[in-house]
Specification:
The complex is a heterotrimer of chains A (186), B (417) and C (187). By secondary structure, chain A is of the alpha/beta class. Chain A has one domain: Rossmann fold (3-Layer(aba) Sandwich). Chain A is built from 7 helices and 4 strands, in the order H-H-E-H-E-H-E-H-E-H-H. The longest helix of chain A is centred in the C-terminal third of the chain and has 24 residues. With 417 residues, chain B is mainly alpha-helical. Chain B has 18 helices and 8 strands. The radius of gyration of chain B is 24 Å and the shape is globular. Chain C has one domain: NADH:ubiquinone oxidoreductase Nqo5 subunit (Beta Polymerase, domain 2), CATH 3.30.460.80. In chain C, 23% of the residues lie in helices and 25% in strands. Chain C has a 5-stranded mixed sheet. Chain C has a two-stranded parallel ribbon with strand order 6-7. In chain C, helix 3 links the parallel strand 6 and strand 7. Chain C is globular and about 65 Å long. The N and C termini of chain C lie far apart (64 Å). The chains are: A alpha/beta (186), B mainly alpha (417), C alpha/beta (187). Chains B and C meet through helix 3, strand 6, strand 7, strand 8 and helix 16 of B and strand 3 and helix 3 of C.
């Protein structure tokens, strides 16, 4: 019996429609109470401050308080250029976060390296950790950031963030192994 | 036990048995190594401070910058002089216009164009520089206050910063990374109604500054956290190369705008605030006063700015007028060569400096006659100030690192280039 | 006014100063490597000079220097020293500025450290070492400042390619993983 380990958007939409309202609640709760860890390095940090401040209020999306501890946060916002020297620190912070966790690459330096192509700037933070939403812009306008946040919240609701898919895949593999174990060993 | 004792002796110096107090002899405290950063809540820049602490007191610190080293020099060597402007934006990214103007002035110095630009271009450069300086100081004071727990001044100052960002966006097209200045002038003229917009903005900013002062100046919590913290003597400030608000808070009377005036600063009246003790409180006061002086300079500029060209008509730096570019082959070729090869700067070396948000920001350029710099070194004040931070946090508590680090205004992009 | 400084310097240390120059308002003095500390100490301590404040310390790599519009004699060749280390000083009281330039060869890239005279040069010299590989004798703590310890090479030298990365960490499931490729080669 073949096991489909990937999910397409159509399949997800079908599953979502069949899901009861009750099953959607955990994801709804998660998406409206994101605790951000702003991994601020560079100029995009200034735009992050603008997004968090009064005019482009990120608090109205529920993502108000930055939690500066990876153990207490679930959204890692990589704000600014990641350099090779910073790589191990970034990986460590990501590993310390508890599942489910999401990553936004804020700015074009964190997405693909930006216009820095040199011996130290990493060509994107996704060389080190998986990223869910990429925000282009140097720096992106605060409206772009809010748009990305809404996009991420849609993904969270659909259960399609990298971390959520990983958990689902691990659960499916475990279920398959349990089934395979039960069958011949009976 | 033996290891802890030897580590303490190693760091603090030899201690004889009879020098130990009763407490220490029974329970010698260990020295602990604590790591702050590179990812830390202080929004100023990414730097790693490895602290060796005795309880809460810092006995040794190792500050490790370089987590944002984006190779400004190497990238500049492969870019034309005009293509370097975006790289300079990202050096001190809270006051990007000043970096642009500094780079333009350095290239103009090598081409002997200093002082030969149209007056309007010089005034526009000063106007946008001072606006950037206000955003720099507002961000520094706001973020430092927020790190000490005062969230409201942060929101108020960021509100003021938003007004300036909107204005700067009308002028240059971008909120933060403008790339506005060009070698020989500026790229676009000021928009219509800029006078009225900026005057209204400045009036509102005055109100915000008064509010912030009321919230912080007489606030005992803020006062206790910053007075006497991170003090530096005047001689130390000079020896360690400190410039800008940090040096001025220690009493060093040095401001590039007044001592080595450039552009139209000789025609403008402004005061240079000086502090006395050099602690964080003085730095905060100096920055707030400089914010007000910048507003004063802006008001004078708006009155004095003449009409005219915004770009020098020297054929080495200016693009030909579009009418000629489209109609004559010589202008079209000149336009093409100008864009592809860059501004040709005669071979030589030179160092030009401006008063950045943090002090003397200079560019040392070595050119080889082509349109690309042979070497472009940025003398960043944040790098120098960060090197003094180790001496400033010595013998303070871990909690004092926050205001000290905040008021140094170490901008990661400028420090690590 | 800085011209008098350079003239006084040349008069006081005639053997140390190989040549002086003035370019676009900057005063420059080329100093021999062995006399650098003596000259710098005099510049700092002499009351008429009073160069109490350091500005920057950096290095120029002349490897690709072929200036356009200049005679061929000014182009770099192997007989000339490859590096020039520049120190810029300023005097807050007298409002003077001076740049000291010391030529250093590639075979022996060493220079006495001025960190003992002005503490600011501590980090600036570390940066020059990190980027160009110039060793400063007598420096209290000469190690890399911008780059990590595992980095091999001196990136601002003209023969270091701009895009040669030396990654410390990469994801395991990257399609093109330079770290894995490096491991594969070394095994």
């Amino acid at each position: 019996m073949g096991l489909e380990l990937s999910t397409t958007r159509l399949e997800d939409a079908a599953k979502w429609a069949k899901q009861s309202k009750l099953a959607r609640i955990p994801e709804w709760g998660r998406k409206f109470s994101l605790f951000t860890y702003p991994f601020v390095t560079a100029c995009c940090g200034m735009e992050f401050m603008s997004v968090a401040a009064a005019k482009y209020d990120i608090a109205r999306f529920g993502a108000e308080f930055p939690r500066f501890s990876p153990r207490q946060s679930d959204l890692l916002m990589i704000v600014g250029t990641i350099t090779e020297k910073q790589g191990p620190a970034l990986k460590r912070v990501y590993d310390q976060m508890a599942e489910p966790k999401w990553v936004i690459a804020f700015g074009v330096c964190a997405s693909t390296g930006g216009f820095y192509q040199n011996y130290h700037a990493m060509p994107g933070a996704d060389q080190v950790i998986p990223v869910d939403v990429y925000i282009p812009g140097c720096p992106p306008r605060p409206e772009q950031v809010l748009d990305a946040l809404i996009m991420l919240m849609d993904r969270i609701q659909d259960g399609r963030g990298h971390s959520q898919l990983r958990l689902k895949r691990d659960a499916m593999i475990r279920a398959q192994e349990a089934q395979a174990g039960d069958g011949p060993g009976e | 036990m033996a290891d802890a004792q030897s580590l303490k002796q190693l760091v603090l110096g030899r201690k004889d048995v009879q020098d130990l107090s009763d407490n220490e002899a029974e329970l010698p405290p260990e020295l602990m190594t604590v790591n702050m950063g590179p990812s830390h809540p202080a929004m100023h820049g990414t730097v790693r401070i490895v602290l060796t602490v005795d309880g809460e007191k810092i006995v040794k610190s190792d500050i490790q910058p370089g987590y944002l080293h984006r190779c400004f020099e190497k990238e500049s060597e492969h870019a034309t002089y005009t293509q370097v402007f975006p790289y300079t934006d990202r050096l001190n990214y809270v006051s990007p216009m000043i970096n642009n103007v500094g780079w333009a002035m350095a290239v103009e110095k090598l081409m002997d164009l200093t002082g030969k630009l149209p007056k309007r271009a010089e005034y526009i450069r000063v106007i946008v520089s001072e606006m950037s300086r206000i955003t720099d100081h507002a961000t520094c004071i706001g973020a430092s206050a927020m790190e000490l727990g005062a969230f409201t001044p942060f929101l108020y100052l960021l509100k003021a910063r938003e007004w300036l960002y909107e204005l700067l966006e009308k002028v240059s097209g971008a909120r933060l990374t403008h790339s506005y200045a060009r070698v020989g002038g500026v790229s676009k003229d000021l928009p219509l109604d800029f006078d009225a917009d900026l005057t209204r903005c400045l009036d509102r900013i005055d109100g915000v500054v008064v509010d912030v002062e009321k919230m912080l100046l007489s606030n005992k919590i803020f006062y206790d956290r910053v007075v006497g913290i991170g003090a530096m003597s005047k001689e130390d400030a000079i020896k360690t190369g400190c410039v800008g608000p940090i040096a001025r808070s220690c009493g060093v009377d040095y401001d590039v705008r007044r001592d080595f005036p450039y552009s139209v600063y000789p025609e403008l009246e402004f005061d240079v605030p000086l502090g006395t003790t050099g602690d964080c409180y003085d730095r905060y006061l100096v920055r707030l006063e400089e914010l007000r002086q910048s507003a004063r300079i802006l008001r004078q500029c708006l009155k004095q700015i003449p009409d005219g060209e915004i770009m020098s008509d020297d054929h080495r730096v200016a693009l030909p007028p579009k009418k000629d570019t489209y109609n004559t082959i010589e202008s079209m070729i000149r336009h093409f060569k100008h864009i592809m090869d860059g501004v040709r700067v005669p071979a030589g070396e030179g160092y030009a400096f401006v008063e950045g948000g943090n002090g003397e920001l200079g560019f040392f350029i070595v050119s080889d006659g082509t349109g690309r710099p042979y070497k472009a070194y940025c003398r960043s004040p944040s790098f120098v100030h960060l090197s003094t931070a180790g001496q400033l946090i010595h013998d303070h508590y871990i909690a004092d690192v926050v205001p000290i680090f905040g008021m140094i205004n170490m901008i990661g992009g400028e420090c690590d280039k | 006014m800085s011209k008098q400084v350079v003239d006084a310097l040349a008069a006081k240390f005639p053997s140390a100063v190989t040549r002086t120059g003035s370019a676009h308002g900057d005063e420059i003095a080329w100093i021999k490597r062995d006399d650098l500390v003596a000259v710098a100490t005099w510049l700092r301590d002499d009351p008429a000079m009073a160069f109490d404040s350091p500005v920057f310390c950096t290095c120029i790599d002349w490897l690709d220097y072929r200036p356009i519009g200049r005679p061929v004699s000014e182009h770099w060749n192997e007989t000339k020293p490859r590096f020039t280390v520049c120190y810029q000083l300023r005097s807050i009281a007298k409002k003077n500025r001076i740049r000291l330039e010391v030529e250093v060869t590639e075979a022996d890239p060493r220079l006495p450290s001025l960190a003992g005279l002005w503490p600011a040069f501590d980090w600036q010299e570390r940066e020059t070492f990190d980027m160009y590989g110039i060793r400063f004798d007598g420096h209290p703590d000469l190690r890399r400042i911008y780059l990590y310890e595992e980095f091999v090479g001196y990136p601002l030298r003209k023969d270091y390619p701009k895009e040669k990365r030396q990654p410390l960490v990469r994801r395991d499931d990257l399609p093109v993983n330079p770290l894995k490729a490096a491991e594969g080669k070394s095994h």
